[in-house]
Each structure stands twice: as structure tokens, then as C-alpha cells.
């Protein structure tokens, strides 16, 4: 006879809707769990299950162990319990973010990259956005897929081939599907207003993502866009299938996962109206995510873990917010609403 109980725990380390997907998937696999629902706005998880008479603390420890390697942990504290620590982390995050932004401006001045929204972005921009993405939201959801897949294939003794197939599948799908999105966009002839609206949507999407990465203003988490949840859930379930082609298919599926950066680049690709430009934009973006995700694949690397994770995500959040503001201002200037603000 089942004796189901319901528990609610605070989840530390959550910053975007990707985290909802990972935590629900991993906790749902724990023994005894029959239902799990994660609330991003309150950073809590509600779990229903039969835990064979275990105490609340034992249940918390059991469930927390399933998500710790992905950079999360369960506790009984309120979201605001570590507020002082979160604010003090800006002392490190702010100067690091400023250095990154100054480097980006330097690259802009020498012509290697152009800000999205200027009307003539470069693939260098897409590559840099990919790097930032791999160090934030992509680390959460795609990193979770990589670790899950590694666990599935570990018993076969082949660690290298599945990981290579995963990254090849990711690059191939971003190229082909990015091209398809660009081709679909050719059906829409964007005028000046349409281009401005597109720029605004990209900027607002990235701004909300950046605020969420700061882990301070939790109300913003309600407004983050995401792919339909069932698509991400199916991608996570693919990692449980031990088949030779599974890693490649999981890599393909990452195109549909809830990453705000990916969605921003997809929106831009749609506006290009070109298969070639859309394909190369998404491919270059995926190429930017490759170094960090590959490092995660072939090592125990986990930058989202440990005592510096808060500084890490706040740095990424500040950089994304600056990108978003640049994008919105440049879009408004290109449309003629304001005079150009930046001369670089």
C-alpha cells in the first residue's frame, strides 16, 4: 500500500526556465517520486511520492543528490535567506563584466564584431553570444543533457564517441534548422518598423534573461519566453535511450531547448530572410558554445558549481543586460526614434 507524502523545498541555483526542465527531469527520476513540479518564480519544488517512511531531511538529501551535479541543491530556507551573499557577489561580478564589455567594444571598433541591431551584425557577434550562452543558461540545460547522456553510456565503456556524436548533431542541426528559419523569414518583408520591432523583441528577451541570471529580482522570471515544455522534456528523455544514434539525436534536440540566447538568435535568423545567413548565424552561435560544452563533456568541469557560482551567473547576467540595452538603443537609432548614442 502506497503512503504518498508531499514536500516543498527551496531550490538554490535556479535562474531560468532551463532550470525548471532540468530539476523536474532529474528529481522525477528519483526512487519513490510520483509527481514533481518546479516553480521558477518562488524557486521551489513540490514533490509527491512514497519514500518508505524516510524523514523530511532524508527525503531532501535523497532528492538533492539527484541535481547537485547540475549545480542545484535543495534546502528548507526561504529564497531571501542568502540575500546578503547575493548582493556582495556584485563586488566581483561588476568589474569582471565591465572588462568583458570593454573587450567587446574594442572588438567592435576594430570591426571584428557588430552589435545585433545595428543592421549589419557579423558572425563574430553570434560567436561571442554563444560563448556567453555556454557560460550561463546553456550550461544549465545542455550541460544537464551532456551529464545525463554520459551517465547512460558510461557502462558501455565508450566515453568519446557518444560525446563527439552529440556535438556534431548539435552543430549540424543549428546549421540546417537555422537555415530553415531564415528561409521561412523570406516570406516576410520587414520594413523599418518591422526591423525595429524585431530588434526590440530580441533586446527585451535578452534583458529579461540577464535580470534572471542576477538572481535578485525574481518577479522577472515570470516573463521569460521558452519553447513549449514538452519539447524540452522529450529531449531530456532521449538521454535514457542507449542506442548508437541517441547522442546525435540529443544534439539535434538542443535546438528546441528553453535557452533565451538560442531563442534570441533564432528570432534574428528569422529576420534575415536568408537560408545561408540564418544557417551560418545559428552555426556560429553553436560553435561559440562548443568549447565550454566540450570541456564539460570530457571532464568533471562544472563552473556553475561551488562557492563562485553566484559571482559567475551575476557576471553573465550583467553582460547580457548590457548587450540587451545596446541592442534596443541601436535599434531605436536605426529607426530614427533617437540620435545614435554609440559612435563605436
Question: What can you see in these coordinates?
Answer:
This protein is α+β, with helices and mostly antiparallel strands and 344 residues long. The chain folds into 2 domains: 5-77, 2-Layer Sandwich (Alpha-Beta Plaits); 85-335, no CATH class. The protein is built from 13 helices and 4 strands. Strands 2-3-1-4 form a 4-stranded antiparallel β-sheet. The model is unreliable at 78-84 and 300-305 (pLDDT under 50).
Structure summary:
The chain has 344 residues and is α+β, with helices and mostly antiparallel strands. Helices cover 61% and strands 7% of the residues.
Work out the number of β strands: 4
What is the string of helix and strand elements? EHEEHEHHHHHHHHHHH
Number of domains: 2
- Shape designation: globular
Q: If you average the pLDDT, what whole number results? A: 75
